[in-house]
């Protein structure tokens, strides 16, 4: 059967490399890459001796696994994005037909191949990350339908998993319990960051029944919950660092947290309008505290 576009004289839609890159959302790669960097710092490994593995890990966590998760999410959210972000590559038609799904599958397989090159710890972590990405966005589980569970899965995948993976890969063994505890706390705190990201999608989420926290709680209450999720784990980190005899790191994380609380007070005045502003200010302080804690935990 003839292509309908060709039969009426219109050009056949083609996959555009620039649209594929946009589908993979490079702006989202930073959090897991930074978390992997925290794991590198916490491992105490020599950077020069381990440069190839570190570079491979950064490639895996950012452009590959995170990019794959964005492609999966955009494919299964294409109807929602047609309302929230109609200019995205799939709803705009710049990635035609089934190509959005094909890119997601291809990036999944490539990620698993790169993960295997990082040894058993790297491969196991990649499998877990891939599974989390698909069940977060794809039916039947589609964890993102519930803001409580979906944001938790996302936060742990973006922050905790890359951090712990880096330590395991570079030390060729299970990470220290202190590292795991701090990585888990920062992953839990990222639940609040994910909630802030949901403010831009309230209309589409409401229409298609996605129960994000801004939808089920309303913007003001969801913002307060997000701030609590971000602040409380960091307060626990401060206490743990002090308990472990790391006072300088404890002070640095505490200073970062106090500055964030000041910014949170402004955020709560207009959560929908100021969420992007907070993402560029408060989150910067959040990840700075992460690195301070990671450096302090190095053997």
Point out poorly predicted stretches: 1-9
Shape: globular
Distance between the termini: 66 Å
Radius of gyration: 20 Å
**Run of helices and strands:** HHHHHHHHHHHHHH
| Secondary structural class | mainly alpha
The number of distinct β-strands equals 0
Largest sheet: none
Please work out how many helical segments DSSP would assign: 14
Mean pLDDT: 94
Helical residue percent band: over 70%
What percent of residues are in strands?
under 5%
Question: What attributes characterize this protein structure?
Answer:
about 300 residues; Chlorophyll synthase ChlG; mainly alpha; transmembrane; single chain; about 75% helix; 14 helices; disordered N terminus; transmembrane helix; Prenyltransferase_related
């Amino acid at each position: 059967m003839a292509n309908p576009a060709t039969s009426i004289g219109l050009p056949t839609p083609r996959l555009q490399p620039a649209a594929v890159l946009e589908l993979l959302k490079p702006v989202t790669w930073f959090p897991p890459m930074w978390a992997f960097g925290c794991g590198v710092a916490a491992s105490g490994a020599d950077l020069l001796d381990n440069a190839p593995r570190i570079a491979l890990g950064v490639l895996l966590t950012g452009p590959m696994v995170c990019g794959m998760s964005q492609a999966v999410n955009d494919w299964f959210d294409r109807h929602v994005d047609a309302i929230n972000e109609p200019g995205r590559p799939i709803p705009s038609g710049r990635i035609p037909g089934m190509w959005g799904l094909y890119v997601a599958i291809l990036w999944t397989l490539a990620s698993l191949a790169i993960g295997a090159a990082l040894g058993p710890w790297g491969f196991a972590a990649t499998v877990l990350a891939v599974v989390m990405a698909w069940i977060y966005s794809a039916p039947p589980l589609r964890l993102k339908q519930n803001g409580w569970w979906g944001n938790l899965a996302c936060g742990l995948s973006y922050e905790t998993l890359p951090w712990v993976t880096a330590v395991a890969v570079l030390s060729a063994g299970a990470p220290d319990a202190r590292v795991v505890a701090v990585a888990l706390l920062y992953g839990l705190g990222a639940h609040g960051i994910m909630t802030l990201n949901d403010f831009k999608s309230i209309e589409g989420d409401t229409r298609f029944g996605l129960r994000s926290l801004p939808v089920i709680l309303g913007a003001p209450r969801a913002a307060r919950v997000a701030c609590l999720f971000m602040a409380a784990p960091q307060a626990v980190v401060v206490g743990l660092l002090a308990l472990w005899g790391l006072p300088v790191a404890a002070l640095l994380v505490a200073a970062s947290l106090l500055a964030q609380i000041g910014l949170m007070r402004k955020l709560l005045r207009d959560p929908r309008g100021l969420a992007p502003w907070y993402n560029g200010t408060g989150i910067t302080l959040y990840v700075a505290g992460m690195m301070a804690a990671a450096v302090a935990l190095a053997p």
